[in-house]
Amino acid sequence: MSEVLSQSEIDALLTALSSGELDAEEIRKDEVQKKVKTYDFKRAYRFSKDQTRSLTRIHENFARLLTSYFSAQFRTFVQITVASVDQLPYDEFIRSIPKMTILNVFEAVPLEGRLVMEVNPNIAYAMLDRLMGGQGISAEKFRSLTEIETIVMERIFNKALENFAEAWRTIIDLDPELDILETNPQFMQIVSPNETVAVISFQTKIGEATGMINLCLPHVVLEPIMPKLTAHHWFASQKKSRSDKEVFHIQERVKKASVTVKAELGASIISIGEFLSLNIGDVIQLDNMFEDDINVRVGNLVKFKAQPGLSKKRVALQITEVLEEGVEENG
């Protein structure tokens, strides 16, 4: 950000220019020189600002999904937020993570190549402790995982990858599958050292344990869908997808909804005394004629008009009229 001068500094600068102490041409040359920046070709920026913003939005949703999933799994306070979205060489990413950590290497069909979810040991061991019946306290000294612990961790993060697919659904339908769980970054070479990767860092708190979860997405893997990582496409697809999903869910819920349907043969007004003295075989005169249609209520609304009768020796109704909006009537 450029420095903002105070009024006294502006006055002093104008005085120096007018007296000849400062040369305006020299100032212009300095400004031109300041605009020149050193470019490191080993650290090429392959993701545009627009694409970086789209990645941020996608993974903010992923963070919310992970928070809900981990909260249910560990039954303790969980908070996950996106801390940063950076692009850097893959070699720099490997050097930035601990020598002993949890690396979930996975594929996401139809994308070609492998991606990585790195989980800081503070968080990973707190997860294990919580699942094993503990308070969710991280280990003071980190060690290699046992076979049982490895299987437990694989199950945890296999399910977490379903949330990854859900977060990306507005862009592409992915089918992520855990390939291998590794603990030594030096044994994990998914792309060339100079390949640009997007690293999404999540600040994570599970119980009292805190740490980072880093998601490494190589540019070469995301390259086929890079045109979709624009604000215009992201919002358009999100709106369409959300609309389709809402309609689908509403339809499914309506199909499963239970409602009371009852046919009313008619009504009659009698006194309390007459009601108390009713016996088997007594006849109550209704306000409907034999040939009149009867009301069929769905819930509290009169939705149909019908004629009562028999069908295959069973009491049945023949619908004669459908009342589209439904009518509220007091029986």
From TrEMBL:
Q: Name one GO molecular function term.
A: cytoskeletal motor activity
CDD domains per the UniProt record, alphabetical? FliM (cd17908)
Does the keyword Transmembrane helix feature in the UniProt annotation?
no
User: Where in or outside the cell is it found?
Assistant: Bacterial flagellum basal body; Cell membrane
Which coarse location class describes where this protein primarily resides? other
Q: What's the protein name?
A: Flagellar motor switch protein FliM
Assigned keywords, A-Z: Bacterial flagellum, Cell membrane, Cell projection, Chemotaxis, Cilium, Flagellar rotation, Flagellum, Membrane
GO cellular component term of the entry, any: plasma membrane
Q: A GO biological process this protein is involved in?
A: bacterial-type flagellum-dependent swarming motility
Record lineage: Bacteria, Bacillati, Bacillota, Desulfuribacillia, Desulfuribacillales
Q: Name one Pfam family in it.
A: FliM
The record gives the membrane topology as:
Peripheral membrane protein
Tell me the organism: Desulfuribacillus stibiiarsenatis
Top-rank taxon, per record: Bacteria
State the family named in the UniProt similarity comment for this chain.
Answer: Belongs to the FliM family.
